[in-house]
Amino acid sequence: ESGNALVKMMVYFMGACAAGVVLGGKAPVVITSRSDEAEARLASIAASIVALG
After folding, report:
1. What distance in Å separates the CA atoms of residue 47 and residue 21, rounded to the nearest whole number?
2. Helix and strand counts by DSSP (H, E) for the chain
3. Tell me, what's the pLDDT at 15?
4. What is the number of structural domains in the chain?
5. Alpha carbon distance 38, 44 (integer Å)
6. Does residue 6 lie within any of the structural domains?
7. HSE-up of 31 (CA within 13 Å, CB side)?
8. Which helix (H) or strand (E) holds 22?
9. How many other CB atoms are there within 10 angstroms of residue 38's CB atom?
10. Residue 12 belongs to some domain of the structure
11. CA 38 to CA 17: how far, in whole Å?
12. Digit-coded pLDDT (tens) for 1-53
């Protein structure tokens, strides 16, 4: 819970961009929220591509 609150504060107060990717399977899974802006969705996709190597 505290990690989620910390990330939300960073996004809101510092203008950070949060990306969500689940690793450990055969392929990375992109995690997005319905309220995510296009920048956050693109960052999640980019992070998953980087994780592929």
Report:
1. 7
2. 2, 2
3. 86
4. 1
5. 10
6. no
7. 6
8. strand 20-22
9. 7
10. no
11. 10
12. 788 889 889 888 998 888 899 999 999 999 988 888 899 999 999 999 999 98
Q: Which two tokens stand for residue 15?
A: 């203008």
Look up the domain containing 22 and give its range: 17-53
Report the C-alpha gap between 53 and 51 in whole angstroms. 5
DSSP state at residue 34: T
- DSSP strand E in the chain: where? 20-22, 29-31
Q: Which residue has the tokens 């296009």?
A: 38
1 CB contacts (<8 Å, ≥6 apart)? Answer: none
Q: Which two tokens stand for residue 28?
A: 């990375």
One-letter amino acid of 10:
M
